[in-house]
Specification:
Blueprint (H helix, E strand, L loop, with lengths): L2 H24 L11 H10 L37 E5 L11 E3 L2 E2 L4 E2 L2 E4 L5 E3 L4 E9 L4 E8 L4 E10 L6 E2 L4 E5 L9 E8 L2 E3 L5 E2 L4 E2 L3 E5 H4 L3 H8 L3 E3 L6 H7 L4 H8 L12 E3 L2
Antiparallel strand pairs: 1-16, 2-5, 3-4, 5-12, 6-11, 7-8, 7-10, 8-9, 9-11, 9-12, 12-13, 14-15, 17-18
InterPro entries: Cell_wall_metabolism_enzyme, Dup_hybrid_motif, LysM, LysM_dom_sf, M23ase_b-sheet_dom
Pfam families: LysM, Peptidase_M23
GO molecular function: metalloendopeptidase activity
Length: 289
């Protein structure tokens, strides 16, 4: 039954209650058990988890009933606005794919890497980390490739990217360990691997500080999210966002580049992790701020 049909049915029930009340005043022979109880019927609708009149999603109380399949982070909640601490139950965790880490959470040359990359072969099965519901199934040619986002009952969201094939559908309920996709090398990827993210209210956290990937289990049964420890990287992100790059031209050297950009050779070497004797190539980009 659709939402419209159920809404119409509920109105019909309420209308019947009113008519029955008037009829009862007029004719006392109508027995009391024949009158439907509108309060109980409405409560049944609210309590029926299979009913789409008021659809339930995991952790709706935390996410303020926001549920969309179009944006990875539709919540736009600043880290400073998050609760001081939130305890998350990790007892149901299943490793999404067994394998070693090939790239860690952290800054890259021009951007920030918000996940942990785990080695796999194209076609390897990828499973859900926790029980939950599929919120996004999408394709991002210049980024994630084929990817899936799951909202979990414990309040976390996980991202699985660079997949070769997705095996679940939007709004599908999954258990921890259910196969959701096959690993691959789609999108912005240079080799087969799983890009895996853990997020809370849209904000990424370092999976390797929560999960022991060597053993395939959480470090602790419960994880305490705090602003200081879980989102320690914010200063790095701000610095990376403020970064400025200069493209090397013919005749440039570190001294000229430093003078042209109001900085020093030592500062350029520190920012780019190079020595003052490094040979510069025309067309190469160098960070100047």
């Amino acid at each position: 039954m659709t939402i419209q049909q159920k809404g119409a049915f509920l109105l019909l029930v309420l209308f019947s209650v009113v008519n029955s009340t008037f009829a009862n005043d007029k004719d006392k022979r109508i027995s009391s058990f024949a009158r439907p109880d509108s309060t109980n019927i409405y409560q049944e609708f609210l309590n029926d988890e299979t009913d789409d009149l008021m659809e339930n999603h995991p952790a709706d109380d935390i996410y303020n009933n926001i549920w969309t399949s179009t944006r990875l982070n539709p919540y736009k909640i600043a880290i400073d606005s998050l609760p001081d601490s939130v305890k998350i139950d990790l007892s149901d965790f299943i490793i999404p794919v067994p394998g070693h880490i090939t790239s860690h959470f952290g800054p890259r040359r021009y951007r920030y890497h918000y996940g942990t990359d785990i080695k796999l072969e194209t076609g390897d099965t990828v499973v859900a980390s926790f029980p939950g519901k599929i919120r996004i199934v999408d394709y991002d040619r210049r980024g994630y490739g084929h990817y899936v986002v799951i909202r979990h009952d414990n309040g976390l969201e996980t991202v699985y990217a660079h997949l070769s094939r997705v095996l679940v559908a939007l709004d599908q309920t999954v258990d921890a360990g259910d196969i959701i996709a096959l690993g691959g090398n789609t999108g912005r990827s240079t080799g087969s691997h799983l890009h895996y993210e853990i997020r809370f209210l849209g904000n990424a956290m370092n999976p390797a500080k929560i999960i022991d990937f060597e053993r395939g289990i959480p470090f602790q049964k419960d994880y305490l999210i705090t602003k200081k420890l879980s989102f320690y990287y914010q200063k790095e992100v701000k610095q990376l966002t403020a970064a400025k790059y200069y493209k090397i031209r013919s005749g440039d050297n570190l001294g000229r580049i430093a003078a042209r950009n109001g900085t020093s050779v030592n500062a350029l070497c520190r920012l780019n992790k190079i020595s003052s004797k490094k040979v510069l190539r025309i067309g190469q980009s160098i960070r100047v701020r």
